[in-house]
Amino acid sequence: MNRLLQDLRIVELSAFVAAPLGGMTMAQMGAEVIRIDPIGGGIDFARWPVTRDGASLYWAGLNKAKRSVALALDRPEGRDIARAIITAPGAGGGICLTNLPPLQGFDFATLQSERRDLIMLRLIGNRDGSAAVDYTVNAASGFPLVTGHGGGPVNHVLPAWDIAAGLYLATGLLAAERHRSITGNGQEVVIALSDVMLATVGNLGYIGDVQINGTARPAIGNDLYGSFGHDFATVDGRRVMIIALTRRQWRALGRATGLGDRLAMIGQIMDVDLDTEAGRYEARDAISALVARWCASRSLDDIRKAFSGTGVLWGHFQDFLQLVSDDQRCSGANPLFATVDQPGIGRYFMPGLPLDFSAATRLPTRPAPRLGEHTDIVLTEVLGLSAAEIGRLHDDRITAGPDGR
Amino acid sequence: MNRLLQDLRIVELSAFVAAPLGGMTMAQMGAEVIRIDPIGGGIDFARWPVTRDGASLYWAGLNKAKRSVALALDRPEGRDIARAIITAPGAGGGICLTNLPPLQGFDFATLQSERRDLIMLRLIGNRDGSAAVDYTVNAASGFPLVTGHGGGPVNHVLPAWDIAAGLYLATGLLAAERHRSITGNGQEVVIALSDVMLATVGNLGYIGDVQINGTARPAIGNDLYGSFGHDFATVDGRRVMIIALTRRQWRALGRATGLGDRLAMIGQIMDVDLDTEAGRYEARDAISALVARWCASRSLDDIRKAFSGTGVLWGHFQDFLQLVSDDQRCSGANPLFATVDQPGIGRYFMPGLPLDFSAATRLPTRPAPRLGEHTDIVLTEVLGLSAAEIGRLHDDRITAGPDGR
Fold first, then answer.
1. pLDDT tens-digit profile, chain B (405 residues)
2. Whole-angstrom Cα distance, residue B353 to residue B359?
3. pTM of the model
4. ipTM (interface predicted TM)
5. N or C: which end of chain A has fewer CB within 10 A?
6. Taking CB atoms and an 8 Å cutoff, what residues of chain B touch A354?
7. Max CA-CA distance within chain B?
8. 8 A C-beta contact, residue A83 and residue A106
9. Handedness of CA B158, B159, B165, B170 (dihedral sign)
10. At what angle do helices A160-183 and A193-203 cross, to 10 degrees?
């Protein structure tokens, strides 16, 4: 949290990862981000992982520092209120972020007729309007078929396309808001999840590889494509990833393991220049055979000591439990984290924004709201409704607070 | 490409994916992005995939629409020129983006002493300054040990942490530039790649899962955690991913396959409510057994026809070759792409920015520069050097143009 964007108000109609992450990134820089959900919660309100009581740790994680308003979006009066919040006056308001199919009356043209300088960011599945989610886009990307050792597709577990899309939304929002602050004009910004995938596959050179070379990157397990990188077992049952992208890292590996002379002989045997990435890639199995024996007689701790301060680029594999319990970076020693009391869940480590701004003090991480926690305050502050009007809306079940009513 | 940020000038000292992607995203919105490299190229200049001649498709993909300046960064005069370009006057200048260890004299304080309102974005490995790259950060993240069926770590192939970091840099840059345009003050913005990973693991609920539940998500192959999603073989040797996140998608799957009544019986047999995500997750193997038989007797094309217009959420797996040759989204029909003549490589499909801005016309995708292509024009336009001065710098091998001299 910081206050860099404290003059902005953004309304989110969202679910799952991408748009919620985009909005949360704005909230973590101080923007007022109002997530509007149907009474009872959106389609992601119970998404896993959940607590034993069924409270979603995922929802809490992706909606930190936002305000939550619960409205009967299936009724005209509920939709009118949502539209009024989106298009409410104020220089930093009039920004809507969504990845849901548009409700009736929530298309850009209609909203713009209610606020001239509206900015609307819309994430869609495919450009033609058809549905796509991280799982389907990933299947099409080519990556699952070169993950692991081949023989069948392996899905990523990190929803990487959604995360990239969320951060493109954040970038697009700030670019559109900058344009508005200079010209006074709003606009609609649209991004398709499948285009995020396609752009990335192209950016990394894989489309060119097919069109120029007529080839495609093979599945090579955990090896690093076009350079040296491999995972090795340790004597104590752990695994480490050792990498040599640069000549300096390659030389450091030879020195730190004492294998420098033998590794150099591999270059002669294989007739490649091991000071080049292509040479190391060509000779990777021979290199790995030597390094594997070195690792296999050492514990993770031995390897940590041997590599400490040497310039070897390496890391060890750990599971989520080990990450949380053993990794100093995932602890109170890292200012990224704060122990936060999340209503309905309990106290645990919550990350803030990974960006550190020297001109904007890092403030404590704020929890996610309870669903509907800010219904009344938003109706008061943003729409100027009276207590009596708000009471009537609750009675009519047009709005709900954190108790679900 | 568009012209949204045409008044900004950003200088990049970068390599590999993250900072180059951040800078390219700015260039694709019209900013003048000057990537400064050592003469002969940086450490990523030959990164794979490459053409048969060794030209990097990866470098071309991540540096589109930029200007390239080649300088002898190992000599004081080369570094002086680089510093002068970074700190050159102009309201939209004075922005530096880097993921390299700082050269002597390129720390924030020194650069700020030459331009008061300097903005510097710096991606580092770990917060303590130690090295970390996508491969080591990923190993620590917990994800490789729950990718695939367990039994050993499986690395992602998409450098997802680098991509997220690059887009956080783009977001941070625009937020810092917004702050400068309001207050006149520059700042340093720092982000650690490992913090991008930690924040994401936390945002998705996996840290809370460990701390609140004492458990961690298991490896479940290509299944979707906490809902229904599975991959199935077709009769013609393809594989499809079928998903039911929402009740509507679940009902659609039953209708489109004609298996609705049988699927409903699974709910009774397993004693779960299949209208909930948790119920479908619990019963996923039984559901998959039925759907697998349905898919196994059908071709990909049969399945496409059966699901068309039904609301079933699904996609098929394809490799990079199939993506490029068979997928309509990866073709000239998609305005994301243009056939671009990349110097030193040839003509192929290059993606532009996936964001469509209604207030900023999409312009043709621009290729990556040849290394040093813009050395002379930048020395002229940004530093105001004369032809004679530029000639002297070339003679002294302080600068180089696209011919390497």
1. 899 999 999 999 999 999 999 999 999 999 999 999 999 999 999 999 999 999 999 999 999 999 999 999 999 999 999 999 999 999 999 999 999 998 999 999 999 999 999 999 999 999 999 999 999 999 999 999 999 999 899 999 999 999 999 999 999 999 999 999 999 999 999 999 999 999 999 999 999 999 999 999 999 999 999 999 999 999 999 999 999 999 999 999 999 999 999 999 999 999 999 999 999 999 999 999 999 999 999 999 999 999 999 999 999 999 999 999 999 999 999 999 999 999 999 999 999 999 999 999 999 999 999 999 999 999 999 999 999 999 999 999 999 999 988
2. 15
3. 0.98
4. 0.98
5. C
6. 168, 191-192, 195-196, 198-199
7. 86
8. yes
9. negative
10. 100
Which of A171, A229, A160, A112 has its CA nearest to residue B139? A229
Residue of B nearest to A146 (CA): B157
Closest-CA distance, B167 to chain A, in angstroms, reads 6
Which positions in chain A touch B321 (Cβ < 8 Å)?
A: 210, 216
Q: Which residues of B participate in catalysis according to the annotation?
A: 162
- For residue A360, the distance in angstroms to the closest alpha carbon of chain B comes to 9
B354 interfacial to chain A (CB closer than 8 Å): yes
For A52, A153, B75, B80, B104, the CA distances from B114, given in Å and listed in that order, are 57, 53, 19, 11, 15
Burial class (CB in 10 A: 0-12, 13-18, 19+), A363: middle
Of B217, B241, B226, nearest in space to B145 by CA? B217
Nearest CA in chain A to B312: A131
- Cβ-Cβ pairs closer than 8 A, A with B, add up to 493
Q: Is B61 on the interface with A (CB under 8 A)?
A: yes
Residue type, A281: Y
Supply B212's token pair.
């609140």
Q: Is the CB of A140 less than 8 angstroms away from the CB of B21?
A: no
